[in-house]
Design goal:
The protein is an alpha+beta fold. The protein has 17 helices and 18 strands. Strands 1, 2, 3, 4, 5, 6, 7, 8, 15 and 16 form a 10-stranded antiparallel beta sheet that branches. Helix 1 crosses helix 8, helix 2 packs across helix 3 and helix 11 crosses helix 14. The mean pLDDT is 96. Belongs to the glutamate--cysteine ligase type 2 family. EgtA subfamily.
Amino acid sequence: MARDTTDFRPIEGVDELVEHLAEGNKPRDKWRIGTEHEKFPFYVDGNAPVPYGGEHGIRAILEGMQEKLGWDPIIDDGRIIGLVEPTGQGAISLEPGGQFELSGAPLESIHQTCREGNAHLAQVREIAEPMGIRFLGLGGSPKWSLADTPKMPKSRYEIMTRYMPKVGTRGLDMMYRTCTIQVNLDFESEADMRRKMQVSLKLQPLSTALFANSPFTESRPNGLQSWRGDIWRDTDNQRSGLLEFCFSPDFGFADYVEWALDVPMYFVIRDGHYHDMTHVTFRQFMAGAARNEVPDGLPTMGDWANHLSTLFPDVRLKRFLEMRGADGGPWRRICALPAFWVGLLYDEAALDAAEALTSSWTYKEVMAMRNAVPEHGIAAPFRNTTLREIARDVLVISRMGLKNRGKKNRDGYDETSFLNTLDEVVARGTTSAEEMLSAYHTRWGGSIEPVFMEYAY
């Protein structure tokens, strides 16, 4: 998230929190696609991580991008930590370990998404390459330890860094050493949100498998295909993971609100200062728990919006749905991830087919799949088959949905070609992670250093 929200309207009751989510309902002609992708900056000389400060650091990249784009700076305690397009059409932000993120504009087609990604990567390369910096498209940091990894001067991350070791064993790895590709998608009603939430929760482990791309940690194979996926199994299970209550046939906005109310907070912002609120839930905050701790200690709608942004389930509900299962990856994956989900969720016939395919899948079965995927990828078992075979069926559905949308580029091609990289995974029967591992044991000669050349932007 590029910028935390400031909305000073007081909260009068829980109904307002439910209405906040319901305000995301949009007619189909207003549905858009918002793609986010993260990448690791590194110095070409020595494949070392890039710190925030210095003449050739993250801050210098942001300042160069600001000068080039004319975007507004995002300032935290006097330091630039991101950029936002003046009309809200996109933003650049920093993850805790310096991962460079583009939060894309809400766009109408995957063609536009790819053009946006191409333009961003060209722009950031123009600024970074003279500094000797490139960017790595993987789901997990392949070389640097936590001690090696720089820390970005962002107030919310300072609070999270103190809190994470209290609630799980992998939170700091998640923050500092992982990257993702995500897509944000709209819904037209509570019922439409429910269908999309349930289908996408059930298929999120498949997304993790298809995009598995983090097999190395600290210069060695880590025994996994998606180290990032494994990290999420013990980051903070109060606020992340597979949400069983969402599988209910009458799941709705109010159920998500009730869950979110009982998750511990991270912070509130008052007069530009971040106050640590990890000791209370939002429900306790509404009951007055912070009256004597922070100025204006009563909750606002901005506090609620920020709280929703600190929840990390596999599919996150805000005033849109965020697909959160995929590892970061090379350029083709940046286009493939939104194509996969748009094909499944933005066409009625495709959504009907995806819903029919997954309707009998239980929470326990999906959880077992989710637990198996980090190690086994598309070979993970499901019932009497594997995810590779499930993927064949799901990609047929997604392709149908993209074809039905009929969104063509200037050359007359629709969006279906963006699934080709995923078709290749299924046809080969091996993930990107397995391809890297094969290279490591053969032509890379037991070194992970070549990954910085072959998977760099």
